[in-house]
Amino acid sequence: MSSTPAEVPDAAVGARPGARGDEPVARSTIAFLAFLGVAMAVGVDIALPAFHRIADGLSIADPSRVSLVGTTYFLGMATGQLVFGPASDRFGRTRTLRVGLALATVGALASMVAPRFGVLLAARAAWGLGAAAPAVLRFAIARDLFDGDRMARVVTTVQAVFLLGPIVVPLIGQAVLAAGPWRAVFGAATLVTATAFAWTTRFPETLDPEHRRPLDVSALGRAFVTVAKTRTAVGHMAAQTFTTGAFIIFLGSSQRIVDRVYGRASLFGVIFAGAGTILAVSLTINARLIRRFGARTMVLVASCAALALAATGLAAFSATGGRPPLLVWFVWVAFSNTMFSLMTPMCQALALEPMGALAGSASAIHGFVTMAGGALLASIFDSLIDRSVTPMAVGYTLYSGLALLSLVWARRPQPSPR
Q1: Same domain membership, residue 220 and residue 199
Q2: Do 176 and 252 fall into the same domain?
Q3: What is the signed CA dihedral for 358, 139, 292, 365, rounded to 10 degrees?
Q4: What residues does 28 pair with on adjacent strands?
Q5: Which one of 203, 231, 258 terminates a domain?
Q6: Among the listed residues 99, 269, 67, the one whose alpha carbon sits nearest the alpha carbon of residue 171
Q7: Distance in angstroms (rounded) separating the CA atoms of residues 97 and 43
Q8: pLDDT tens across 353-379, in order?
């Protein structure tokens, strides 16, 4: 392995598509991180600040229906996890990434020019499907290129870059919205996805041809059966599905709350970025707590905290007619979402722990179930939120309680097969 810190090891770098195998293309670590940062930006929904403008622009009588713009996007991303992970093992990372980014570009462009709400929803589903590619492949590419401590450092940096997305992207969307119509936000997203796609033409293949595997649909079936028979996998997957549902309630309705409940639509980007900052700091602290107390303990602590926050918010919001002060709602939702987000990596790790050699396929199933299930659960409460934040608190309380019950059930001993 090369000792030059600015370069990816030659042995780990594939050749540029079309080049001879003996002509490796050196890539700097900074360029690699920059590439993944742009690619992952595709997966952060820049459209959130524009939801209220979409309702007006497409003459949607019921503003709560705009939350479907988010729901269809997440359903597309959930489905994409089942597609792009196995495809990249068979056809290579770069080719698969290009297909995903091309699809995301088409989806973003179609969203920009959509003449009707139904067309917009179809375009958003395609956009989400394509955006799943960089989300799924970012760690696979890192594994291809690095190993040992260097891989750990790079993956940590990639995750940190990814966390910047929810902080920065909504602010960019808000700025674009302040200068132009809602379609301009989708135009900006089209530019980002097209840029990422163009960059893939200069990024070499990272998966060694000798390590490619044939597509095996039956592996997903075997993994599904194994997951369904494993209590700890089902319990932690269910807990993450409920917390994901609660978090997507926020994603789908927060802009409408800031606009229609508080009349402060211009502050949405700042509020979203503030919540993202609290989350990023909390994730850093939680990593240290996990090392000290263990994931099984910390996931229960976070779940209990989430339920306590949700129930407290429900009581407080009901007492104020569903319209607490904006600052009170922001603090409540920021820390509630932080608890949900802290639970996500711990639930995933604990669910996949007993999967052994089926971990890859089980991970795809886990991602699909939690995101698709969460999007569907969120849609139940998204449609109820208009002039009050109480329905959000009801959803948070219900799903937090169900998540805690799932975790408790997951900790019970697995019954011995007869």
Answers
A1: no
A2: no
A3: -40
A4: 7
A5: 203
A6: 269
A7: 13
A8: 887 666 667 878 888 999 899 999 998
Give the Cα separation of 219 and 236 in Å (integer): 21
Helix axes 68-91 and 217-229, enclosed angle (nearest 10): 120
The verdict on 244 and 356 lying in the same domain is yes
State the Cα–Cα distance between residues 319 and 311, nearest whole angstrom: 13
Where in the sequence is the domain holding 123, given as residue range(s)? 24-203
Cα gap 337→284, rounded to integer Å: 15
Domain identity same for 37 and 165: yes
For 221, other C-beta atoms within 10 Å of its C-beta total: 12
pLDDT at 415: 65
Angle at 315 between CA 267 and CA 397, to 5 degrees: 80
For residue 227, give the CATH number of its domain: 1.20.1250.20
How many Cβ atoms from other residues are within 10 Å of residue 164's Cβ? Answer: 16
Tell me which of 348 and 142 has the higher pLDDT: 348
Distance of CA 247 to the CA centre of its chain: 11
Q: What is the pTM of this model?
A: 0.76
Cβ–Cβ under 8 Å, residues 118 and 65? no
- Asked if residues 401 and 259 have their Cβ atoms less than 8 Å apart, the reply is no
Cβ-contact 85, 209 below 8 angstroms: no
In a domain, 291, yes or no: yes
240 is a domain residue? yes
pLDDT of residue 266: 78
* Angle between helix 29-41 and 148-179 (nearest 10): 40
- CA 367 to CA 375: how far, in whole Å? 12
Type and span of the H or E element at 110: helix 93-113
Residue with tokens 């194994």: 226
Residue among 91, 100, 85, 73 nearest 196 (CA)? 100
Give the Cα separation of 233 and 241 in Å (integer): 12
Cα–Cα distance between 44 and 119 in angstroms, integer?
Answer: 21
Q: How many CB atoms within 10 Å of residue 30?
A: 11
Structure tokens of 315? Answer: 């009581």
